[in-house]
Amino acid sequence: MNKLSVLITVITMITSNMGNAQSAQKKYEKNPFSLVYDGAITKNEKGKVNIRPVSYKLNGIDISANVYTQADYDSSKKYPAVVVAHPNGGIKEQIAGLYAQRLAESGYITITADAAYQGASGGEPRHTDKPAFRVEDIHGMADFITQYPGADASRLGVLGICGGGGYTLKAVQSDKRFKAVATLSMFNSGEVRRNGFQNSALGTIQERLVQASNARQQEVSGGKILYAGVASITDEEISKTSTDLYREGYQYYYRDYAHPNSTFLYTMSSLLDLMTWDAATNMDLITQPLLMMAGSKADTKYMTDEAFPKAVNSENKELFIIEGATHIQTYWKPEYVNKAADKLVQFYSKYL
To answer: Cα(71)–Cα(193) distance, rounded to whole angstroms?
Structure first.
């Protein structure tokens, strides 16, 4: 192959990659509700599941949320309701919306909201990711949906996905309005921020705490806000990422299901709170029926395995393994989404 042929091949590859990225990034523009998941609602029609963008105040912050209602929705009737908490870096238009829509198709009123300081919700500094705030987001969704026309406050469930799963475990320890608790691909944000993914950063805990402390001091002094995480990534960097969680996660969030409100960034100062927090503490306070789901091939499964046995006072608990699935595949791959959604309907039908 001569130099001109090589150059043409390289230009073609670059153009193709740019086109694919632009196509994925603009998927949200093609949907009137900016939803990016497969099979998303494109318009509200009578006799079908409808979506209603809503907003409300939570501790003085404007929260942006979507409520999904079932095909036969009648505000004069009563229906069970489910709160859906999104993953770290995720927003309501991605996987949380997918599962909220699927549950609505099975007869539930559902709500999913962007966390405070994230997505389309208010709050400054942007991308603050503190556990107390994320837990409060779940309480706030419960506040709103239990007042929604047609929602039966006595039949309230919750689904937490990835990081939202860890925060859900903490929220339901005290909030007994939730009568049934489920997690999917649970991610213990505190454990990972403290110890590193799969305990890979145990030797740098104190160093990173100093960095977080310095970042907070810089913030209060009026300096630049420092961020941790990944702002952008190339296709080559994605392909060379060794762990399934992050390689497939980058592909999901920055390519296939990209949305401008979704980001892997979080304030460095948030680590002061994250690194001293753990989703799996006080699990004995959970008395509600508990369903924890994880893919058999998920490199995050160890977090579900750690937390589940600690729920000693949940008399009706189940660990459900989705055979063949990795963590991110439970977000979008039809065969795994179907298995998880079917299990959720079975679970909520029994306890709500």
So the answer is: 41
Are 96 and 183 a contacting pair, CB within 8 Å?
A: no
DSSP-derived secondary structure for 180-218? EEEEES---HHHHHHH-GGGTTGGGHHHHHHHHHHHHHH
Q: How far apart are CA 19 and CA 24, in angstroms?
A: 9
Query: Which residue matches tokens 């977000």?
Result: 331
End-to-end Cα separation, the chain, in angstroms: 66
Global pTM?
0.92
The pLDDT tens digits for 20-37 are: 445 444 889 999 999 999
How far apart, in whole angstroms, are the C-alpha atoms of residue 83 and residue 341? Answer: 14
For residue 95, report the phi and psi dihedrals to the nearest 5 degrees. -60, -35
Q: What is the pLDDT of residue 18?
A: 39
pLDDT digits (tens, 9 = 90+) for 57-94: 999 999 999 999 999 999 999 999 999 999 999 999 99
Quick one: which of 215, 186, 209, 198 has its CA closest to 290?
Answer: 186
